[in-house]
Structure formats: structure tokens, C-alpha cells
Amino acid sequence: LAIIGSKIPQGLKVFLTALAIIDDLGAVLVIAIFYSQSISLLYISLAILCTLILFLITKYLKFYSLTIWLLTGCLIWYFLHHSGIHATIAGILIAVVTPINFKGNEPLDYLIGKIHNIVNYFVIPIFAILYTAILIEGDLSMALKSSISLGIIFGLYLGKPLGIMAFAYIFTKLGFAHLPNNVSWKLLFGAAILAGIGFTMSLLVSFLAFTDSQSQDIAKIAILIGSFLACTTGFLFLKFTVKK
After folding, report:
1. What is the pLDDT of residue 136?
2. Tally of CB atoms within 10 A around 118
3. Contact yes or no for 135/220 (Cβ under 8 A)
4. Which residue, 23, 12, 22, is CA-closest to 186?
5. Which letter does DSSP use for residue 2 in this model?
6. What is the pLDDT averaged over residues 208-224?
7. Mean of per-residue pLDDT scores for the chain
8. CA angle 226, 88, 22 (to 5 degrees)
9. Cβ distance 83 to 44 under 8 Å?
10. Are 87 and 81 in contact (CB under 8 A)?
11. Residue 117 burial (CB count, 10 A)
């Protein structure tokens, strides 16, 4: 959207940003619900207890300490990691109980600012290196014709924009939502196509869904192809729409 230029309405950028965040949260919930094994109620209870303690000391004791938050956050991650629920849910729990405003300060914004560069320039590159190493064996065309690759490509390239547009249309017609300022349905459709670009969560889900390396490699290739199609089509569609 930034490359297309200033003609893209600010409301569309906000919409796509919010959509990307909610999309990741949805993926985390899918991982927590469908890819968790041998649930341990003890560890889940300990994780919930730690989260509750953080909430209570902020709300009733009016106390906030970054050090305590980080240490307790590590404990929450540890307990969830051993609970059978995927540990990515720990990030949501910690964020939920981190205060937005506290005695004139903004702890949540402060944390985001502190970890932003670490995540962008260290965590994500390492994740990319570890999860996208693809070993192509045999006939690539046969791999792309498999149900795994076709499902992922069509899911990213067609399924996501159609789902986004359907829900946006229904909620708008029912009066629960409205289009952002200066955003037409055509522009919204272009952003919905771009939403098909999948990387981190798509790779993580595919890694959890398929246990054999061959299926994982097929899924990785399909994610990259689906993302490339969504990227180029969305870019060209929006570029033409804005110009027109």
C-alpha cells in the first residue's frame, strides 16, 4: 500500500493493519485449539494464575514493574509450553493484562517500542531462516498438483479475499460496521487480495499440521506461491483502481 503512494486512503491502511493483527490472533487461537496435545490442567491453571496476579496487582494495588512483568511473562510462557497448549497464546495473555495507561505512562506502547526492532530485525529473520528452508526432491509440478498445495494456494489467493469481502458486506448491510472514509468497495477488495499474503503464521500452522518433511516443503512452496500471487494481483488491482 505504501509503494502505491499517497492516493491510498489512510482508512484503508488502518483497515489492513487491523485485519493483519486480528488474522494473526485468529491463527494463534487455531493453533491453541487444534494443535494442542495432552492437555495438563495443572500447568494451564498455573499460567492463568500468573496472568490473574498481574491483572490484580495493576487494578487493585496500582503497581506496575517491567521487571516483574517480564519475569512473570516468562513463567506464563513456560507453563503454557508444558501445558499442551501452544506457547504462542502466552503473548496474548501477557498483552491483555499489560496496562495501556498507568499513572501518566503508557506501558503497552513502551513495550511495543522496545521490542519492535528486536522482533523485526532479529526474531522474524531467524524464524524465516528456520522455517523456509525448502528441499525440492523429485518432480516439482507433481508436488504443486497435490491437494496440500492446491488447498493452500486457493485458500490464500481466493479464500481469504472472498471471506473478508463477504463478512465486510454482511456486517455493513446489517449496520454493525461501515466502510472507512474515502474507501470504496473496489479499494476494499484490493486490500482483501493483499491480505492473502501469508508468511509467519501460515508457515507455523503448516509446520504443526504436517509431520513429514515432504508435506511441510510442499506447504512452504504453496505458501510462497499463494503469497506472490496475492501480492502481485493486489498491487496491480489497487494501482489500476487508484489511477482510474
Report:
1. 67
2. 10
3. no
4. 12
5. T
6. 88
7. 88
8. 55
9. yes
10. yes
11. 9
